[in-house]
Amino acid sequence: MTAVQGLPAALLLSSALAGLAVWKRALTAGGTALAWLLSVLICAFGGLPAFLILAATFLCTVGAGRLAGERADPRGVRRKSGRRDAVRVFCNVGVGTAALLLAGPLGETGARCIYAAVLAESLADSLASKLGPLSTGRTVDICTLRPIEKGLSGGVSLWGTAASLLGAALVGLLSLLFGWSLRLAVLIALLGFMGALLDSVYGSLLQVKYRCPVCGAVMERERCCGVPAERVKGLRRVNNDGVNFLSNLTVFALAWALLAAG
Ligand SMILES: [Zn+2]
């Protein structure tokens, strides 16, 4: 099916997904508009399986967020961002969409494979960050292995890692709908899972973190206890969206290199 032949279906499916996002109040207006546009491109260039991977990633992310609620950030260490805006949509889906449009030299299967791997990373990371903090066990920094506050970027827990593996495996399974071999599906799941671990490494090393001078808490918010907090780690401009974008880009490059090498 060419992009043009698939366009009516792409418009219909994307509008249904965008309608669901509006109904569930999952995205801001700008976020919904961009998500709709990216969904049309994904559907037109990647076909129905690519759309189903996008829909599953979106629905599982929203579902996990609702399931975890406040428990995803028990100590309020994250920056309060609420609904997903256009920047966040771009940082989570933009690179995957670009794979479908740009990876032509690798052929249709190659392009779709990179897309699926990038989306696997996005879902693995989303599930880990939302469901990980529900873990009753320890959360440690992936780089230093020292215990850190639940919900803080760079932290890993047993549940979070399991949730991440589950998310990556789900996208791997869905990619079988492209009619691929199990070997490719496993590659996609592994790339997604590895990408989510790298996301934690980037989160630990690069993402900005502050310490409150009053209560001493380390967090991603700039203010606490009514005063500005001091930066203790990471780069001032790198937030969670930046880290997600960087991990997506890493999976894109890794998948491209692996496929190009055969
Ligand atoms: Zn404080």
Describe this structure in words.
The chain has 262 residues and is mostly helical. It has one domain (7-208, 237-261). It contains seven helices and seven strands; from the N terminus they run H-H-H-H-E-E-H-H-E-E-E-E-E-H. The strands form three sheets. It has a three-stranded antiparallel beta sheet, with no helix packed on it. Strands 1-2 form a two-stranded antiparallel sheet. Strands 5-6 form a two-stranded antiparallel ribbon. The chain is globular, with a radius of gyration of 18 Å. It starts with 6 loop residues before the first helix and ends with a helix. Zinc ion is lined by residues 212, 214-215, 217, 224-225.
N-to-C span: 25 Å
Please outline the major beta sheet: 3 strands, antiparallel
Largest sheet, spatial ordering of strands: 4-3-7
The number of E-state strands comes to 7
Dominant shape? globular
Q: What fraction, in percent, of the residue positions are helical?
A: 55-70%
Class by alpha and beta content: mainly alpha
Low-confidence stretches: none
SSE run:
HHHHEEHHEEEEEH
Count of the separate structural domains: 1
Beta-strand residue fraction: 5-15%
Q: What's the total helix number?
A: 7
Gyration radius, in Å: 18 Å
Mean pLDDT: 92
The distinct bound ligands, ions and cofactors come out as: zinc ion
